[in-house]
Amino acid sequence: MSQRIRLTLKIWRQKGPADPGHFETFAAEDISTDMSFLEMLDVVNEKLTLEGREPVAFDHDCREGICGSCGAVVNGRPHGHLRGTTLCQLHMRHFRDGDTIVIEPFRARAFPVIKDLVVDRSALDRLIQSGGFVSVNTGSAPEANTLPVPPDRAERAMDAAACIGCGACVAACPNASAMLFTSAKVSHLALLPQGRPEAARRVLSMVRAMDACGFGNCSNHRECEMTCPKEISIVHIARLNREALKAGFLSPER
Amino acid sequence: MRLDAKIPGGPLPQKWDRHRFELKLVNPANKRKFDILVVGTGLAGASASASLGELGYNVKTFCIHDSPRRAHSIAAQGGINAAKNYPNDGDSIWRLFYDTVKGGDFRAREANVYRLAQISNAIIDHCVAQGVPFAREYGGLLANRSFGGAQLSRTFYARGQTGQQLLLGAYGALMRQVAAGRVRLFPRREILDIVVVRGKARGVVARNLLNGEIECHEGHAVVLATGGYGNAYYLSTNAKASNVTAAFRAYKRGAFFANPCFTQIHPTCIPVHGTYQSKLTLMSESLRNDGRVWVPKTPGDKRPPHQIPEAERDYFLERKYPSFGNLVPRDVASRNVKEQCDQGKGVGPTGLAVYLDFADAIRRDGRAVIERKYGNLFQMYEKITGEDPYETPMMIYPAVHYTMGGLWVDYNLMSTLEGLFVLGEANFSDHGANRLGASALMQGLADGYFIIPYTLGGYLAGTPLEPVSASDPAFAATAREAEERIHRLLAVNGRRTVDDLHRELGMVLWNHCGMSRNNEGLRKARARVQELREEFWRSVRVPGSGRDLNQSLEKAGRVADFMEFAELMILDALARQESCGGHFNEAYQTEDNEARRDDERFCHVAAWEFAGGDREPVRHEEPLAFEHVPLTQRSYK
């Protein structure tokens, strides 16, 4: 049943990329346990607005866990402590009356802070630009059923394709590596026959882009897998490594 | 002004082919001389940008998010229709066309809908080639499922994330063109106005959301793919940033707005649980394939669902509509749910909910099968409500979901403002007064991949377009107006927050211009909206400045436009003295409480022209002719 709780929030405030930033403490009163985490922040922001203070900036949009806009580090964990959950789908029933919650932005060299909890994740777009697609122009596709795909393969491709591009994997990684994000795309397309012709080129190019964007390397901490709101597995990282190894030895693209 | 839909001549099945032949072509070497501005990166905008880039045009693409992949198409769950007839159950282009016209309650153009059905199959081919991981049968071929408003299986799907997968396909194609230098991407930009030079749309005024800078961009044509206006109601299944601003600004610059009262209330959403609630979450219509909708037979029965014996339950959709059962179209399902709750049979703490029960399906097919089909939806439901739908039936209630109305476009998807094209949910074209499930994804991608690449070329090749630069006085004047508006919003410094005012507007619309409407309520709502608009400009408080990231300011600008636009919705609802599809005026219903159309007086599209200042907008009519699907009372019995 719905209850009302009180919380103490320690929220990271930063005016802009050049500002060093600091924590500010807020009291959140009369919070319903049915609220989502973002609705709780809305309540805080409404109060700040009426007090003549600037509300806390945070990215959000669909509020149903699919657009990948939202995300902050809550008590040390990107998207909070609940597994397989985006911040917008974390509900206040998972907190207790009197809790103190520390909220800060995703931190990684490749994700500069823009303001408060908002970070610049355009590096993830650059990774996709480096090859995260199948090169097919509109109009040139063959009939859809000419290329059968065994359903378990299609399912595994779908497991990888479920990535929402939120960047939590990067924020969770001690190396700020984008390996889970990159491998999800490499794996999704490598598993499907449509993606094979470009597989070698794709993996080599995306790995290069990862370095160029300032992401760290993977050293198997597995924090990304624990944090991923879509529970994407590190088996995709293993597949990326296999694809990269194959391409590095055998492909004319190397 | 007479509205000319520019429907090509000839028999229905040959119209599009013939039109494509008749459209002038832009020579490949000349395409790079044309600058195209595309606003929005949902299915329609991303697919249009990618396809135009592939053809060789210079494309500038704007999106409100940090990345084009976050557009709200991403949230579409259930699927995408196509007339492939893979299940061999009798589907055809003609039947998809027929179902869509009938489902829209005969308020869409036959020629447009037929073209949509024709293109549907090419969309599936293209998405599969992009690597969209659609569900497959054991033999490796594509799987289909059934959806509301159809008696066969023509819906392709990728778990409950079809919109996401299709959008990521289009986003990949867009990113490929960005890498190739054919598309320049402008993320975190909001379009505040359309620039009109000598009667033609030649540019946009954008606000850089990070630093507040007002930018002018010029082009030979503008393509709006900015989605629907469901957030006028405050609570809807739309994402928080979804808004009407660019479309409404275009209306004020001369593009007519068609059928603004046609809004879709989706029957299966998670019920409202508190005043702080910021949005509503849809539970895909696909759930109605296996879930059974019921309420207790006795009003006020407060027993928990498992204590209510079978004989005391009313499976009202199955009872009233034996041939379609739980799969009746959305407008019909929503109205019936409301009717049950109005009779006091609603369940849950608020009484504004009905059960969607999977117990029979789980008994029949086993939990594993249900989990495979709907696992992510069940999980989402549990996260939000804290209840396990494998054990207790879901509770659902209708919520605002989609808007069939939008900017009026002709067969070429061009609005009444020359050079302004409108795609996807932002236009009004194909769904009439009610959209069928799995048709929005189809339309967005049809417009972007397979229609605009041809019709835009026809416009550019056939229209003299003198050079225009952003130093033209029209740009400076339009940009100044946008800046002044921002200053005004910041200067009010009143006592109410943007959300507070927006919530109140939403309640007025939901109560009087929602699932069921009457003339008295609509008139009251109109007066209330006018008062609320004055209240907004008197008492809104927007903290911060216009020179950096200011999310309150962004919201304020959008809500200011909703405050004006809401009146247009109400005016349109008042003018349409009939019931059709999602527009249900209580004065016009059959004995069984179904919507009763008035084809004598209202078999037309209503298109509203902005008349300037506070003057009453002018209503124009585009008559609709039904030569192939006979006008009949819809029946799903």
Describe the structure.
- The complex is a heterodimer of chains A (254) and B (637).
- Chain A is elongated, with a radius of gyration of 20 Å.
- By secondary structure, chain A is an alpha+beta fold.
- Chain A is built from eight helices and seven strands, in the order E-E-H-E-E-E-E-E-H-H-H-H-H-H-H.
- In chain A, the strands form two sheets. Chain A has a five-stranded mixed β-sheet with strand order 2-1-5-3-4. A two-stranded antiparallel sheet of chain A has the order 6-7.
- Chain A starts with a strand and ends with a helix.
- In chain A, 33% of the residues lie in helices and 14% in strands.
- By secondary structure, chain B is of the alpha+beta class.
- Chain B contains 17 helices and 20 strands.
- Chain B is globular and about 75 Å long.
- Chains A and B meet through helix 1, helix 2 and helix 3 of A and helix 3, helix 5, helix 6, helix 11 and helix 12 of B.
Compact description:
The complex is a heterodimer of chains A (about 250) and B (about 625). Chain A has 8 helices and 7 strands, in the order E-E-H-E-E-E-E-E-H-H-H-H-H-H-H. Chain A is of the alpha+beta class.
The number of E-state strands of chain A comes to 7
- The chain-level structural class of chain A is alpha+beta
Strand order of the largest sheet of chain A: 2-1-5-3-4
Low-confidence stretches of chain B: none
> What is the overall shape of chain B?
globular
Strand content of chain B is 15-25%
**Major sheet of chain B, described briefly?**
5 strands, parallel
Taking the sheet with the most strands of chain A, its summary is: 5 strands, mixed
Strands of chain B, total number: 20
The whole-angstrom Rg of chain A is: 20 Å
Helix content of chain A: 25-40%
**What spatial order of strands do you see in the largest sheet of chain B?**
6-2-1-10-18
Average of the residue pLDDT scores of chain B: 96
Which regions of chain A have little confidence, pLDDT < 50, spanning 5+ residues? none
What shape does the CA trace of chain A take?
A: elongated
